[in-house]
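Sample pair:
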Amino acid sequence: MGETTTRRGFLRALSGGTAATAAAATADETAAQGQQTIDMTDQLVFDPDSVTVQPGTTVVWDNVGSVPHSVTAYEDQIPGEAEYFASGGFDSEDAARQAYPEGSIGGGEQYEYTFETEGDYEYFCIPHESAGMVASITVGSGGGEGGGGGGGMPAIPESARTLGVATVSAMASVLVLVYFFLKYGGDYGLD
C-alpha cells in the first residue's frame, strides 16, 4: 500500500476554517504529549503504514476492527542498539512467532511502545504478514505529528484518491453532456 496519513491529517488537508483549526489544535496536543496512533483495520493494514516520530514518542497501535492482529518487529530490521518490541512482550521475533496467538490484539484493544533510539524500524502482523500487513517507523529528531515523514502536504489514503478520481470523472461526464445539449439540444428540426 502506498503512503497514507491519519484520518486527522486527511481531514485537516480537506477542511478549512474552524474545522482545520480544531484538528490542528488536537494534533498539536497529541504531538506535545509525545504520542502517535496507528490504526489496525479489518482490511489488514496499519494506517498509516509509515510514520516519522521524535525520540521518546509513544506509538499506540489501536485495533479499530474486529480481526485480531499483532505488532511484531522484524528483529534484523531495527537499529542494533534498540530494544526489541512485540505485542505480548516477547524478547525476539522467533519467540513472538512461535507463541502466537499469545500477544494478539483483539478488536478495541491497544498496544503501545515508546521509541527512544533513533533509526528505522520495520514491523508486521504475524497472521497477516503474507497479506502485506507490514509497516515502518522512522525515529529521528525531525519527526513530528502524524503522517509519513517528509514535510509538505499529507499523503492522501488510496480510498480517498479513488473517490477523487471517480468524482472528477463524473464531473467531466456531466460537463460533456451539458456541452452536447447546449450545442445540439432543443432544436431537432421538428417544425
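The CA atoms of residues 62 and 152 lie 26 Å apart.
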